[in-house]
User: What shape does this take?
Amino acid sequence: MASNAANLNAVRETMDVLFEISRILNTGLDMETLSICVRLCEQGINPEALSSVIKELRKATEALKFFYFIFEVWEPELSTIYKAAENMTS
Amino acid sequence: MAAPPPPAHWSHFEQEQARDVRALVQQVTGLGEEEPGGRFQAALSFTSSNFRFHRFLDVSSHKVERTVEGIYEKLIIHSELGKAVSWKRLTEKFLNLPLPNTEKTKTDAHYAILSLLLCLSDSPSNTNYVEKPREKEVEKEEEFNWGKYLMEGEEIYFGPDMNSPDWSEDSEEEEDTQPLSREDSGIQVDRTPQEEQDQNKKMVPNVTWKVGEPDARSWLEQHVAPQYWTGRAPRFSHSLHLHSNLAAVWEQHLYSSDPLYMPEERTLVTETHVIRETLWLLSGVKKLFIFQLNEGKVTVRNDIIVTHLTHNCLRSVLEQIAAYGQVVFRLQKFIDEVMGHSSENLTHGALSTPKKATGAPFRTYQAFMWSLYKYFISFKEELTEIEKSIINKDKTITLSIVIDKLLPRLAQLKVLHKVFSTGVAEVPPDTPNVLRASHLLNTLYKAILEYDSVGEASEQTVSLLFSLWVETVRPYLQTVDEWIVHGNLFDPAKEFIIQRNKNVPVNHRDFWYATYTLYSVSEKTENEEKMSDNASASSGSDQAPSSRQHTMVSFLKPVLKQIIMAGKSMQLLKNLQCKDGSPQQTASRDAERKSLYTLFLESVQSRLRHGEESVSDIITEQQATKQSLIKMQSIAERHLELDVVHDPLLAINFARLYLEQSDFHEKFTGGDVCVDRSSESVTCQTFELTLRSCLYPHIDKQYLECCGNLMQTLKKDYRLVEYLQAMRNFFLLEAGDTMYDFYTSIFDKIREKETWQNVSFLNVQLQEAVGQRYPEDSSRLSISFESVDTAKKKLPVHTLDGLTLSYKVPWPVDIVISLECQKIYNQVFLLLLQIKWAKYSLDVLRFDELVSAAEKPQLKEGPLLQQERVPQFGPHTELIKQQIHRMFLLRVKLMHFVNSLHNYIMTRILHSTGLEFQHQVEEAKDLDQLIKIHYRYLSTIHDRCLLREKVSFVKEAIMKVLNLVLMFTERWQAGLGAWKMESIEKMESDFKNCHMFLVTVLNKAVCRGSFPHLESLAVSLMAGMEQS
Assistant: This one.
């Protein structure tokens, strides 16, 4: 129990340090994402692959958000806009 | 739709990885698993395929370390030293820390993670990473815990919105969904026992302690003044230095040395609090914490303490201030009361103001109040300045500095209070306003004189008091001004020392005497005396008894007479001019005129300015003085050498003495500002001198002007001099021919033993006599006859008693020639008539009358008694001749006597005194003086005609002689037959006795020299004696 607690403390400190490093590097990761990334790295996922995935996902999300906004605003022309969006993504 | 379960053949490791990948996609894209359109699944499959099939090499620890080193250098180059140091430290620390599922350090996982972060990094040198969260975190932890510890059990709810951890700015979306940051919970886990935390949560379920909260609190504490006045002030931190803990040390000492000492609960305040409260107290704030106001008394709170002073010390300092505070309060109260916005609970007597309620405001108090008010405004300005500098915290300000700074003000407050309490507060409540006003002015005046005599030391005080006095005296001077310039005494509150008697109209004979009442206030006995204006005005200041030294308003005393005269004259003049009518002229003149007060102020200012100039000159003068001192010294030395004395010190002193005398005059005229106060005689008089040179001349000028005007008007338009002349003409028989006609007709009647007492006969005679030469006077003159008691009537000389001449004097000349004056005139008139009668009777006697009268009876009786008488004839005729001769002689003697008397009275007395009187009338400055001159003239002639009671024996003797004369003439006319030798002898002896008596008495008087005018009478009577 006591070793558990000590371990927990140590891990917390690690995470804190890591979060600070992340801030210095301006990675844009929050604490939760960072902890997921740490776990994934521990599982042997290639960090470069992971980073590229995160970057791609971010890009896609930004685009999606943009189209989502248009979809909300111009509902009657939804289909044409959607098509255009599909064209753009393809 | 729930997440699809992982395939059964997957291992635990694979399942965990799949879960993590889902979580990652969710976290990064924000998409839910149930997202329509299969976007989540697409993203998931994209991620998984990328993880499995990628073209990247395995992580190289060397490469990572190199990159880390590179970034460090880059940061150094970008001169972001703090960041670089943090970077290096943090990476090293990280590599030496275990990972969640990896016990060891510096494993591939470590490098993988670092590599990931490096790949994700986005221009680290451009970001603002200035804080050092690790260090700050530690502080925050402590602060947080302290706050939590102190505020334990407090039910203060800070909503989740208060949460703003510095490092969560980049992920606000997440933040919103996550009220409790992991940081906080971590700290709570660290520092607080689990159970206590649970308990806490149970008790105050809503409380969520945030890291930012103590920040806000401390900000508040720094920027809001602690509520020391509520009694439960927070224990603020202060230096632990011994000096700033004197109170505690002393307390400790007392506690240890005195077994019975009980420490009291005290409120801790700072010195700034004390200073500010002091300033507020002095500026008249009533509700304070440190100083408390109980029923008009300012007391110091007992349970106050500052850290660096003992309780007693602080208290003694504050009690002094409290005394001044009370003075301020008292004066402020007075100001409020006079201003009229006071509460009605006037318990003390100073201002019970029943009069104020009824009407006119008491202007002297108002003026005094106004001057106090002005003083307080400047005082408050000074206090505000000090307070401002306290607020600005530019300078060190301690209580003693403040008191030092205010010391002159406090001294002034003391003086003000002294003046106020003697001048206003101690006056009994039902005192009339006139007393109060004059008492206040007198108090100020005396205070000025008192402080003035102290000299340089109290120059400030004198100037303060002087300004107060100048302000306070304003209504008085305005009243005076209004009175002496416009002639109406406007004094609604009855505060002026002179008051108008309403019931006497101006155009009344008594106006001059009875119109005004002078309130003479005796300072010593404090009782009011109503002195008749008549008495005071005519007696003047010289006759005032010394016991009434401090009567009335003492500053006006030297010019009081002038003021009264000018005021009355002006009123009279206005009334006279009203009839002539030229109000426009006077109005236009009045617009340009400066009021007395303005004039006074101007001359005071110019006088003071003159003083200032000479102050600036003093420096240059001093050098000149030195030079002349040396010169004088050499001269003095030479002088001393003549007397063979060699003493340089003596020479210097002599030189100094000469110098002082030479510029004494300059200093003397220099005014009370720059006057060298080395000489006491100068100091004592400066204030009075100021008044003398600044106020009195204006009053004097006005006095001369309006009295001169009045005299001019009276003399020119109202022919005062002519009336006086008429009085002399008719009463004193100066119009000799006219009056001769009048009285001889009466004397003739009497001689012929006809009735003459008929009033119409008398008046006809008078009119006939006067009408010819003085037609305008004839209408005014009348004569009446009152029968006097018969006892006196027996004597022939008193036959004329009861004749009264009266002259109708028109207003306003009757102010001068009053009925009383006419009475005196009549007395003299009667005496003159008696003398004239005696003289006339003697004059009209003829010698042949007597001779023929002597022969007639012989002729009648002759034939019958011829033979009998023949033998007797010779001696008989002898006898008759002798008798006749003696009669002749007696007549001549009597004539001599009467003529001497007549001459004496007519020429020596009436004429010469009349000339003197005329001269004085010309020079009379004011009406009062004129009246006085007239009275003096009358009393002089009254005296010199021996009509005074004191010399009645002389008059008796003269009357006896006159009586003798009248009897003699009667006998003379009756003829010789009525005569007997004895009666002649008796007459002779009577006359001789009277004559002797008179000569002796007069000679004695002349020898004593007390009556020089009697000399001629005495000499002429003496001459008569020698012959006999």
